[in-house]
Amino acid sequence: MTWRFLLPLLSIVLLDPARAGVAEQTAGAGEFPALQLLPPGSVVRGISLPRYENHRVTATLTADRLEILSRHEARMKNICSVLYGANEETSQVKMPGARYNFRTELLSSRKGPVQLIHPRYRVQASGIILHSASHCGVLTGPVRTILRHSATTRP
């Protein structure tokens, strides 16, 4: 999850090979290689990032705005992430904003509502803190959960 948030910046690096070498040489531990190409305060609008696995789209991330805070931290606004399961189930995560820190690998959104939408459940929380390397996180409260039984899970 860490690098997928900043693929537009990666495309800048890929489009300009001269900058790519500089980015790789100057990126330190806990930094995304393209962040140094845009100074803090830079804004990228209208982000739409697909994720592919085995020639299949498995997720998309959209955000209205991405702001570079430092070489290791970025902030996004109006985020929607859609996950496409192999069994045709689609899950969504929506939040008004979040910060991502490349050093700590933490995504945090504390100004909810954060919504998790799946065919079998729906969760609304005040915030989320997610460690992208371990894929573990916590929803901050109050949290409201609605569980649904699908036709295939009923006895």
The percent range for helix content is: 10-25%
Largest sheet: 10 strands, antiparallel
User: What is the number of strand segments?
Assistant: 10
Mean pLDDT: 78
Give the count of helical stretches: 2
Keywords:
155 residues; disordered N terminus; 12% helix; ten-stranded antiparallel β-sheet; 10 strands; mainly beta
Can you characterise this structure?
With 155 residues, this protein is mainly beta. 12% of the residues lie in helices and 50% in strands. The chain contains two helices and ten strands. It has helices at 7-15, 17-26; strands at 43-53, 56-70, 73-84, 90-101, 106-109, 114-118, 121-125, 127-131, 136-140, 144-147. Strands 1, 2, 3, 4, 5, 6, 7, 8, 9 and 10 form a ten-stranded antiparallel β-sheet that branches. Strand 2 and strand 3 form a beta hairpin. Helix 1 (7-15) crosses helix 2. The chain is globular. The model is unreliable at 1-24 (pLDDT under 50).
Task: Outline the secondary-structure elements.
Elements: H1 7-15, H2 17-26, E1 43-53, E2 56-70, E3 73-84, E4 90-101, E5 106-109, E6 114-118, E7 121-125, E8 127-131, E9 136-140, E10 144-147
Antiparallel strand pairs: 1-2, 2-3, 3-4, 4-5, 4-6, 5-8, 6-7, 7-10, 8-9
